[in-house]
Amino acid sequence: MAKHEHVRVAVIGSGFGGLGAAVRLRREGITDFVVLERADSVGGTWRDNSYPGCACDVPSHLYSFSFAPNPDWPRTFSGQRHIRAYLEHVTDTFGIRPHLRLGHEVMRMAWDEDELRWEIETSRGSFSADVVVSATGPLSDPKIPDIPGLADFTGKVFHSAQWDHDYDLTGKRVAMVGTGASAIQIVPAIQPEVGRLTLFQRTPPWVMPRADRAISAPERWLHRQLPFTTAARRGLLWGIRELQVSAFTKRPNELGLVERLAKANMAKAIKDPVLRAKLTPSYRIGCKRILLSNTYYPALAQPNVDVVAAGLKEVRGNVLVAADGTETEADVIVFGTGFHVTDMPIAPRVVGQEGRSLADHWKGGMESLRGATVAGFPNWMTIIGPNTGLGNSSMILMIESQLNYMADYLRQLNVLGGRAALAARPSAVGTWNRRVQARMERTVWKSGGCESWYLDANGRNTTLWPGTTGEFRRETRTVDLSEYEVLRAAAKPAAARRAPRRKETAK
């Protein structure tokens, strides 16, 4: 039996978004909150993704909180182990551990119209909260395509985010399905040890060189002794990426020079013209995420690697059949096929006003107000919500902007006083999303000639932000109360107010 616990704020998830929210709550003087995490440790996607070669494609000093600079990053682009250690460090430094409820998977959360609060059922007890901050993230639930015959495959199968470290790949025939950010790190990491590696490539990615190097001891010493140098380094990295945004969002034709650089990068490693043709994209660079690697192309050129320029269509025993008819025998299938991004798995578990689920509300596509709140779901916010993703910079910048919005949201509730809630007006949500989608039409993500995970089933880009991170920060600095309806709890009869409150329990 687990006692029911009521808190001011319930944060869902303990990745960058959830831990950032927890730190910001404490800095705002709010300590009445919990962080509900389904796993047994913090870290989010950097806990789950531990595949060989896993690393970030954003520079370390930009891929960290501005309020928690790390002068000791070992490399310009850090690996999974160091990023996860950084998040553990943030958890300890800012006193978040007492607020953690590990092993608490949220099964359902429902809005109580009478009490103006959220009732939350988890795998280990029930909670209620005045405000919910959902930070489950778009890269949390692996997506494996529905391949006929896959269930009967005679070998080993796993997703890149669920790597089986107990399984030895040495000498095995491995099929890598997918060519996204995970796959281009996995391929060169496992190529030397496997017997044969077959890459099933539905669409080739654009790959640029990765300017990665070890950060020297003198650099780290300087950052420790003079913290402003760390901030300056971060600011420079940010500024360079801000200047690149207009090419993606307004003038995609300017990306032609970048394409030539990417082709030159490929030509250095891929001498076979047939293989080079397979690996050359037919869409504008930037339409899909630009990938960074110095080792991907050299690995593909090795004699134990085959590239099948078609997606996996069917599995027959241990034979994999591609869409072009190519047949390959395999002992292992590794899926690098991404995550449920435009169909958030948390959505069916969130029930708002009138008993309507978030999944039902978003049936026609995800929409929110300023990437944070949703009409019909009062006092519910999401971190990394619809149209807050980036194609060329650090998501930590967007997360911190959303934390500003969260903080002001809570301040507005305090000013209102009493039992109150804020409900995003449908008109405000509609206006915001029409603006975003109108701007999206000019971007390379819509006009670049590709199909990507940025797009939902209706072809709408509900994932990315079509502007600079600076602009998004200005748009989310404060809450505009004209975009919200203020809800007040109905006054209760005196007898009900005097009645003792029954303690709630959950099995």
Plain-language structure description:
- There is one protein chain.
- Strand 15 and strand 16 (327-329) form a beta hairpin.
- The protein is of the alpha/beta class.
- The N and C termini lie close together (5 Å).
- Helix content is 30%, strand content 19%.
- The strands form six sheets. Strands 2, 3, 4, 5, 6, 7, 18 and 19 form an eight-stranded mixed beta sheet that branches. It has a five-stranded parallel beta sheet with strand order 8-17-9-10-13, with no helix packed on it.
- It folds into two domains: 2-141 and 340-490, FAD/NAD(P)-binding domain (3-Layer(bba) Sandwich); 150-211 and 236-335, FAD/NAD(P)-binding domain (3-Layer(bba) Sandwich), CATH 3.50.50.
- Mean pLDDT is 94; it is low at 495-507.
- The chain is globular and about 75 Å long.
- Helix 1 packs across helix 11 (395-416) and helix 11 runs parallel beside helix 14 (469-475).
- The chain contains 15 helices and 22 strands.
CATH T-level topology of the largest domain: FAD/NAD(P)-binding domain
This entry's quaternary arrangement is single chain
Termini separation (Å)?
Answer: 5 Å
Mean pLDDT: 94
What's the main sheet like? 8 strands, mixed
- Output the CATH class name of the largest domain: Alpha Beta
Number of strands: 22
CATH architecture name of the largest domain: 3-Layer(bba) Sandwich
Count of helical segments?
15
Radius of gyration computed on alpha carbons: 24 Å
Cofactor: FAD
Family: Belongs to the FAD-binding monooxygenase family.
Protein name: Baeyer-Villiger monooxygenase
Keywords: FAD, Flavoprotein, Monooxygenase, NADP, Oxidoreductase
